[in-house]
Amino acid sequence: MQPSLRFDWKKTFFIIWTGQAFSLLGSELVQFALVWYLTKQTGSASVLAFASFVALIPRVLISPFSGALVDRWNRQRVMIFADAAIAVFTMLLAVIFWLGKIQIWHIYAIMFIRSLGSGFHWPAMQASTSLMVPKEQLPRISGLNQTLRGALGIVAPVAAALLLEFMPMFGILSIDVLTAIIAISPLLFVIIPQPDKSGLTEMTKPAHLWEDVKAGFHYLANWKGMFYLAIAATVLNFLLNPGFTFMPLLVTSYFGKGAIDLSLIESAFSAGMILGGIILSAWGGFNRNIFTILTGLIGMAVGTALTALTPPNIFYLAVVGMAITGFMNPIVNAPIAAIIQTNADPKMQGRIFSMLESLVSAMMPISMLIAAPVAEWIGIRGWLLFGAVGCFTMGIAGFFIPALVHLEDSKEKTSHPLPEG
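Above: the chain's sequence. Below: its structure in token form.
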């Protein structure tokens, strides 16, 4: 399914990848700065919760539709316009800060728009990667992406905190505009291969868009192994996300530690994530990506259980547990992207990635609503242990589910053609 790569894929891909890395750094700086501004100005948990909700909504609601449009449109242009739109509205917010006219709703609106742009950019980049990178290199590239995200998890908060000491908010927002320009520039001079779109136009009627979304869902549902894996990823997010969200309470109430210790445990997770991504980039994983994923799930369960079961007087054992969990994070996540990029029809990949993103994102508010009262009953350590047991069970059970084991052998054979535009 992958087009013949007749160009210097490394040069083309890594020029684009480097630009996108700068853009991600700028986005992380802005995210930290805006959250910190809301924290300092309001001191309200409800304001922070609503800010997270506003940033999450586009990922849940528009992802299936943005993926369908990405599959129909030119993905290179989608990436350019998404980055440009985010930069323009971020600059608008910078001007409002500079004029001293900022209000909380301005920040909510820009967070929503930035998330909306990301909802188009992310599936376009992921789907384009499979058309630029040789099939056998995709797991390594996915590992490299996980390494980048882990590194940003350490560098960006520290850099943003330092910048906030010396620069006004509009200055930090302007940095994100600069990094967006760095990301867009190479996209103007390289050519990204596009999937076959014979019989299609880029003009999309609502009926066509809805048919595209349905075709993507049917494709995923008929690819049983991938459908089961999507469900597993959704359940995994339900099990583990609340425990990590409650980590500040675990550090303070159970271990009796402070902010420095919280930063240590979060940095351990990010450091483990970097190491896991580096090793996966060099190793490439098992011949069957699904075995890499299932092994990572078991390892993630071990790390989470270690954190949950650590006695209150041995805090550094919990730090080790979080480092193990972070290490296993790319071992689980990166091969999922590689499986889709390697096996799914290139003209369906935007929809597959965006549907997976929508499912996983939708689980976050649901899991928090359920986990909050349950954690009050069984304790934060109890929820972490519950998540570890569920994660371990999924990892072991996966080896005995034929549709999962043969996921990469049983690609969808039935064609689901896109409606003509």
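The chain has 16 helices and no strands.
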